[in-house]
Write a structure and sequence with these properties.
The complex is a heterodimer of chains A (398) and B (322).
Chain A (H helix, E strand, L loop, with lengths): L1 H6 L18 E3 L5 E3 L8 H11 L6 H14 L1 E2 L6 E2 L2 H17 L3 H25 L5 H20 L7 H23 L18 H8 L5 H18 L7 E3 L4 E3 L3 E4 L4 E4 L3 E3 L4 E3 L4 H26 L1 E8 L2 E8 L7 H33 L3 H5 L9 H9 L1
Antiparallel strand pairs in A: 1-2, 3-4, 5-6, 7-8, 9-10, 11-12
Helix pairs in contact in A: 2-3, 4-5, 4-6, 6-11, 7-10, 10-11
Chain B lengths: L1 E4 L2 E4 H18 L16 H4 L6 H4 L9 H6 L6 H5 L12 E2 L9 E8 L3 H16 L4 E9 L7 H14 L4 E5 L3 E3 L13 E2 L3 E2 L15 E5 H6 L13 H11 L13 E4 L11 H7 L15 E7 L4 E6 L1
Parallel strand pairs in B: 4-5, 4-6, 5-13, 9-11
Antiparallel strand pairs in B: 1-2, 3-5, 6-10, 7-11, 8-10, 12-13
Chain lengths: 398, 322
C-alpha cells in the first residue's frame, strides 16, 4: 500500500498520507514546508506587508493580497491523526447550514415547504454543476456525514422516546450501524480500485499480469470472476484478448473495463461512478458494499422516519405482521404548534426524501446490474451485455 | 503515543475513539430510555380476575345472569363511525345515563365518573360513543359528569373524590375514573372492576399503543369503591394538569395494593384532540412530599358544595364548587 501512496500523482492528496510521520497538529503547507497549527498567527510576510500598507494608506499589492488569502485558507486547520486537516468553506458550510435550514423549516408549514423545495433545487443544481465539471469537493460528503449526525442527534433529543419500544429502536440502530459500516468499507476499499503501475514495469505489460499485482490478497474465486468479466467485455467489444487497453489520460495500459476518474485522477477498475456523497469512486472492490449500504441506509431512514412520524403525529394500526404491529401516521395537522415536535417532523420528512433518493439510485443500480454493465459503460453508449439477467445478478453477488 | 495490549500496538486516539463509539452504541440501545413492557392479564385470565358485584336493584332482578365470555373471546373493534354518530336505540337508556340489560341480569355495576369543564365537543362525542359501546357489554352502568363550577384551576382529582362519594351513596361497588377525551377501541375492555385496581388505557394511540412507564396510572382507571375509600381517595391539592395520577399510584403502592392491566390488544384507547392544559408547576414538589399527606389529604378532607344535580338523558350532571 505504501508503494501506492508514494506513487500517487495526486498532489492534493499528498497531505493525507498516514505514514508521513506528522503529529496530529502538524501539516505540510502549500509551499511544502512543515508547519504547526499553533504557529498559525506567526510569520506571514504577505500579511505583514499588506497590513502595513493598509495602515499607512499605501496601495495594496494584488499578488500579495492573494498570497495572504491563500495562507489564511491554508492555515485554517483542525488537528487530525496523521497531520492536521485543512478546513475550507465547502467542508465547513454543511455543518452550519443543515441545522439552520432545519430550524427555519420547523417554524411553520410554509417555511417547511419553501426550505425543502429550495434546498432540493439548489442541491440538485450544484450537484449537477460539480458533476459536469468533475470538480473536486468534499462538500457533498461532509453534507452527507453531518446529515447523518444531525438526524441521529435530533432523533435522540426531539422524538418522545418513551413512546418507542426498545425493540423498534434496536432495529433502527442495527440498520443504521450496518449501513454506516458498509459505507465506511466502501470508502476504505476505494483505494483498492485504483490501477497500480508496477515500479519496474513498462506500459507494455499485458493486462492480466497487471491485475495480479494487487489481486494477491483476493481469493482465487474473485480472480477467476474478474478474468471471466474481462472475457465477457472483450468478447462484447470485439477486442482481441492480447491487445492491451489504454487509458487516454494516464497514457498507460490498464485492465479491461477500467475507466479514468477525472475527480480522483486515477484509473479505476470497473468504474461504476464517482460518488460525491461518499467522496470516493465506486468500482470493482467496493461496489457490493456500496449497494448493501444503500439498501440498509434506505431501510434505516424509512424506519426512523416512520417511528418519528408516528410518535409526533396521530398514528393508526396499519397492519399486524406476525405479531409485529406496524403503525403509520394519519394526521399531522397540528404538528407546527410545538417547536420541538415540528423539528422531529422536519427531520422525518428529510429522512424520507433522502430515502427516496437512495431508492431511485438503487433502482438504477439494479437495472445496470441486471444488464451486466456499469453506469460508466452506460454513459459511453453500452446498453448491456448479452447474458441473462439471472447470470448477471449471480456474477455480481458472487 | 501507543498502548500495548496483547502484544499488539494501538494508537491512543484510535482506542479512545473506538471505546467512545462502543459506549455510544450501548447508550443508544439501552432499553430504559424507551417505552416499557408490562405484565398483563391474558385473555383467559380476565374473567376470573373480575369481581361480580351489583347494586341492590339489579340483585333483585329475577332473570338468568348475563353471559360475557363471547365479549372476551371476540374482542371486536368497536371504534367505528356507526357508533360515533348517533346514540342508537336511545330509548333503552334511563334518565341520568343509566342502563342495565333487560333480558338478563347484569353481573357488574359500574359508576363511570367523568370530571369535566368546558369541553362541549368532546363531551358530545364521548356520550354518544360510550353509550353505544357500553350497552354492548351487557353491564349495569351509570355515567356521572362532575363539572367544576368555579374559575379555579381544574382540579381533576378532587372531582373524582366528589364523584366517588356520590356513587357510593348510590351503592355502586365499582368506580371507573374516566377522562372525557379517551374512548375505548376494543370491546374486550369490560367496564367492570378487577380485584386489583386496573389501569385500562395502557395502549393509547397517541403513545403509539405503548406504555411510556409502568407507574402510569391515569386516563381511565377502574377501582373498587371500598379500595378507593381505603386509600383515602385521591389528593385534593393538585390544581392544573398533571401529577394527581402518579399520586394515586403512590397511594396504592404505600397501601400495598398492586395494580393490573389487560392485554394490550384489549386496552387500546384513542384520545380526542384538544389543546394542552396549563401544567401544574408545583406538581413535582407535591408528588415528592405526597406520602406525608396520604392519611390527611383525600376523602376525609374533602370540602365542596354541590350547586346542582340534574338527570339528563345521557348522564347525571353534578355541578360543584371546589
Amino acid at each position: 500500500m505504501a508503494d501506492y501512496f508514494s506513487q500517487s500523482q495526486n498532489q492534493l492528496d499528498s497531505e493525507k498520507e498516514p505514514n508521513s510521520g506528522l503529529c496530529c497538529c502538524e501539516y505540510i503547507d502549500h509551499q511544502n514546508k512543515h508547519y504547526h497549527i499553533l504557529a498559525c498567527c506567526c510569520n506571514c510576510e504577505d500579511f505583514d506587508k499588506v497590513f502595513t500598507d493598509w495602515l499607512t494608506c499605501r496601495r495594496i499589492d494584488r499578488s500579495r493580497q492573494r498570497n495572504m488569502l491563500i495562507s489564511f485558507q491554508d492555515r485554517l486547520r483542525i488537528p487530525w491523526q496523521g497531520g492536521a486537516k485543512q478546513v475550507t468553506f465547502d467542508t465547513l458550510a454543511p455543518v452550519f447550514v443543515i441545522p439552520l435550514l432545519i430550524s427555519i423549516a420547523a417554524i411553520n408549514a410554509y417555511t417547511c415547504i419553501v426550505i425543502f423545495l429550495a434546498s432540493s433545487v439548489i442541491m440538485c443544481y450544484s450537484y449537477n454543476y460539480i458533476h459536469r465539471n468533475a470538480g473536486h469537493t468534499s462538500f457533498f460528503s461532509i453534507w452527507n456525514l453531518s446529515s447523518l449526525i444531525y438526524l441521529l442527534l435530533l432523533f435522540e433529543f426531539t422524538v418522545p422516546l418513551l413512546e418507542v419500544l426498545p425493540e423498534e429502536n434496536l432495529v433502527l440502530a442495527l440498520l443504521s450501524i450496518i449501513s454506516v459500516i458498509c459505507f465506511w468499507q466502501t470508502r476504505k476499499r476505494a483505494v483498492l480500485n485504483r490501477v497500480i503501475q508496477p515500479i519496474t514495469g513498462g506500459s507494455e505489460l499485458p493486462d492480466i499480469a497487471e491485475t495480479s499485482v494487487n489481486e494477491e490478497n483476493e481469493t482465487e474465486q474473485t480472480t477467476l470472476l474478474i478474468e471471466q468479466d474481462l472475457d465477457e467485455v472483450q468478447s462484447l467489444d470485439g477486442i482481441s484478448s492480447n491487445q492491451p487497453n489504454l487509458c487516454a489520460t494516464c497514457r498507460k495500459s490498464v485492465p479491461a473495463r477500467t475507466a479514468h476518474c477525472p475527480v480522483c485522477r486515477a484509473c479505476i477498475k470497473r468504474l461504476d461512478h464517482h460518488s460525491y456523497w461518499l467522496n470516493c469512486c465506486i468500482g470493482e472492490s467496493n461496489h457490493r458494499y456500496y449497494i448493501v449500504g444503500m439498501i440498509f441506509g434506505a431501510l434505516a431512514l424509512i424506519v426512523g422516519a416512520d417511528l418519528t412520524l408516528t410518535a409526533v403525529c396521530h398514528p393508526f394500526l396499519a397492519a399486524n405482521v406476525a405479531g409485529v404491529q406496524i403503525l403509520l401516521p394519519d394526521d399531522c395537522t397540528e404538528i407546527f404548534e410545538m417547536y420541538e415536535l415540528s423539528v422531529a417532523f422536519v427531520i422525518a420528512i428529510y429522512a424520507l426524501i433522502i430515502s427516496q433518493y437512495i431508492l431511485v439510485m438503487l433502482v438504477q443500480q439494479g437495472y445496470m446490474i441486471s444488464r451486466g454493465i456499469t453506469v460508466q459503460e452506460w454513459k459511453s453508449g453500452l446498453r448491456g451485455n448479452n447474458k441473462t439477467v439471472k447470470y448477471n445478478c449471480k456474477s455480481f453477488v458472487l | 503515543m501507543f498502548l500495548k495490549i496483547n502484544q499488539r500496538k494501538y494508537h491512543v486516539t484510535d482506542l479512545v475513539v473506538r471505546i467512545a463509539c462502543i459506549a455510544l452504541v450501548i447508550y443508544w440501545i439501552m432499553p430504559w430510555r424507551f417505552a416499557s413492557h408490562y405484565e398483563y392479564l391474558h385473555r383467559n385470565e380476565i374473567q376470573q380476575a373480575l369481581v361480580e358485584q351489583v347494586t341492590t336493584n339489579i340483585s333483585m332482578q329475577r332473570m338468568p345472569p348475563c353471559e360475557y365470555s363471547d365479549i372476551f373471546a371476540d374482542n371486536v373493534i368497536t371504534y367505528r363511525s356507526q357508533y360515533r354518530e348517533h346514540v342508537l336505540r336511545g330509548e333503552e337508556i334511563l334518565p341520568g345515563g343509566e342502563y342495565f340489560p333487560e333480558d338478563c341480569s347484569a353481573r357488574f355495576s359500574t359508576a363511570i365518573i367523568v370530571p369535566y369543564r368546558k369541553r362541549e365537543e368532546q363531551l358530545h362525542a364521548f356520550l354518544i360513543y360510550m353509550h353505544n359501546y357500553l350497552r354492548q357489554q351487557r353491564i349495569h352502568y351509570r355515567i356521572f359528569l362532575v363539572e367544576q363550577y368555579d374559575q379555579k384551576p381544574f382540579n381533576r382529582a378532587k372531582l373524582f373524590n366528589i364523584g366517588s362519594v356520590i356513587a357510593a351513596e348510590l351503592e355502586f361497588p365499582c368506580l371507573i375514573l374516566h377522562d372525557v377525551d379517551l374512548l375505548p377501541m376494543n370491546l374486550g375492555q369490560l367496564y367492570a372492576c378487577t380485584q386489583k385496581p386496573r389501569h385500562m388505557c395502557s395502549a393509547l394511540d397517541i403513545f403509539r399503543f405503548t406504555l411510556p412507564y409502568r407507574g402510569l396510572f391515569g386516563g381511565v382507571v377502574a377501582i373498587r369503591t371500598h379500595q378507593y375509600r381505603f386509600i383515602n381517595g385521591m389528593s385534593n391539592l393538585y390544581e392544573g394538569w398533571g401529577g394527581e395520577d402518579d399520586d394515586l399510584f403512590n397511594r396504592l403502592y404505600s397501601h400495598k395494593i398492586d395494580i393490573c392491566r389487560f392485554e394490550p390488544s384489549y386496552s387500546t384507547y384513542t384520545m380526542m384532540r384538544h389543546k394542552p392544559e396549563k401544567k401544574n408547576e408545583a406538581r413535582l414538589e407535591l408528588l415528592r412530599t405526597g406520602y406525608k399527606r396520604f392519611l390527611t389529604d383525600g376523602l376525609n378532607s374533602l370540602i365542596y358544595s354541590e350547586k346542582e344535580r340534574r338527570l339528563h338523558s345521557l348522564f347525571t350532571h353534578i355541578l360543584v364548587e371546589t
